[in-house]
Amino acid sequence: MPEKDLTMRLDMWMKIARIVKTRSAAVKLCDGGKVKVAGRTAKPAKMIAVGDEISVFHHKRRRQITVLGIAKRSISAKLAAELYEEAPPTSEEVAQQEQEHLARLAARQYQPKFPGRPTKRDRRDIDKFRGRS
Fold first, then answer.
1. Stretch 88-115: mean pLDDT, rounded?
2. What range defines the domain where residue 67 resides?
């Protein structure tokens, strides 16, 4: 159950709250400058408490999170969702995500499909075409 008046290391909290899958992933994000607490870049050992504002740039999107609770051990996903409140993305962020999605779809259409290694029949056809038979 989430407890109210505690502090906890940022990397541990991110793992328990299921912001990231592993604690080492949380450490990498913090060391890479992708996590900010109260607008300042945070190290993994930063102690956080209820009410702190956390900004995480993960998987090509920014998440604004408010800490609502601290749990000292792993808990179920349902309870982990109660540890924080996430601000909805702005209309600009939604538009940018949609634009990036459409760009990825367009790029995928023009990528040549590589079927893999040629079969014996394909190789014979290639040799015939090149005039090696």
1. 85
2. 7-113
Longest dimension (CA), the chain: 81
Instruction: Name the pairing type of β-strands 53-58 and 47-49.
Output: unpaired
* pTM exceeds cut of 0.85: no
Q: Is the pLDDT of residue 119 over 70?
A: yes
Q: How is residue 65 annotated by DSSP?
A: E
Domain with 106 in it: what CATH number? Answer: 3.10.290.10
How many angstroms separate the CA atoms of 105 and 39, rounded? 34
> Which secondary-structure segment (H or E) carries 106?
helix 91-109
Using alpha carbons only, how large is the chain's radius of gyration in Å?
Answer: 24
Q: Where does the pLDDT of residue 30 fall: very low under 50, low under 70, confident under 90, or very high at 90 and above?
A: very high
Tell me how many degrees the CA angle 120-122-126 measures, rounded to the nearest 5: 115
Nearest to 13 by CA among 42, 32, 33: 42
Report how far residue 52's alpha carbon sits from residue 49's, in angstroms, rounded to the nearest whole number. 6
